[in-house]
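A.,

Following up on our hallway conversation. Structure tokens first:
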């Protein structure tokens, strides 16, 4: 089977044809790589590349040639093979083509590059790159601690209420029950339930309770409102989001 026929079959996904194509062209590959190695012997030595490394790369050259080869153009596969051989060899010894030098990926800095600190210490750049997964875990832990602290403070505030007041608040805000449903559970009419709720809310607003929760109100106001009304129209109408947030906090007596 000719090189061109094998290349066409290998391009279609026939792995056996790819292996046969490599075996069939090993002599030509050796000649092409030998000529390049003769010209770049010093570079190979500097990069620690041996002839065994070059020989093992010959299969990569054939695989690259198959991927780029276009049988319909009528070119002989053996003639086309020289370009992939050069590409694989230059990559092996660290030489880059002009196109590769202009490629943004070719301008990337190695993560092994040492970064000097003020104290003279050196740290690989890779160790200083933020880990998104670790960042998400940290934020999750921070949110969990915040929620636990808020829950603890809320429980302490609810503990200052009368038992029936506490039950009304829990049914209303923890279980989202209506006044009539709460009344059915506690044996009161809806009017009495609303009276107990109003009294409970007054007690929760007492400084001994509101003082516990101010810091959480402040944080929610800043975080929840940070991205609302940030367009030009909102700024033109009422100022920046930072200014509006400060005014809101002042109106609520939180700062």
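Then the amino acids I'd put at each of the 255 positions:
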């Amino acid at each position: 089977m000719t090189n061109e026929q094998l290349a066409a079959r290998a391009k279609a996904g026939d792995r056996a044809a790819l292996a046969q194509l490599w075996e069939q062209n090993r002599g030509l590959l050796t000649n092409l790589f030998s000529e390049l190695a003769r010209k770049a012997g010093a570079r190979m030595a500097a990069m620690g590349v041996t002839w065994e490394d070059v020989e093992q790369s010959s299969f990569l050259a054939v695989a690259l040639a198959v991927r780029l080869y276009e049988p319909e153009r009528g070119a002989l596969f053996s003639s086309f093979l020289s370009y992939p051989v050069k590409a694989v060899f230059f990559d092996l010894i660290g030489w880059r083509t002009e196109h590769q030098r202009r490629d943004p990926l070719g301008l990337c800095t190695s993560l092994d590059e040492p970064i000097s600190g003020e104290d003279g210490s050196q740290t690989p750049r890779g160790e200083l790159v933020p880990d998104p997964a670790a960042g998400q875990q940290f934020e999750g832990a921070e949110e969990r601690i915040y929620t636990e602290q808020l829950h603890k403070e809320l429980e302490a505030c609810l503990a200052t209420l009368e038992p029936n007041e506490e039950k009304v608040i829990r049914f209303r805000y923890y279980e989202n029950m209506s006044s009539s449903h709460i009344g059915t559970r506690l044996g009161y009419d809806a009017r009495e339930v609303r009276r107990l709720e109003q009294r409970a809310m007054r007690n929760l607003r007492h400084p001994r309770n509101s003082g516990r929760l101010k810091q959480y109100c402040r944080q929610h106001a800043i975080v929840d409102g940070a991205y609302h009304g940030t367009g030009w129209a909102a700024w033109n109408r009422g100022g920046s989001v930072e200014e509006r947030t400060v005014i809101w906090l002042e109106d609520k007596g939180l700062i």
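Strands lie at 114-116, 122-124. Curious whether your intuition agrees with the design.

B.
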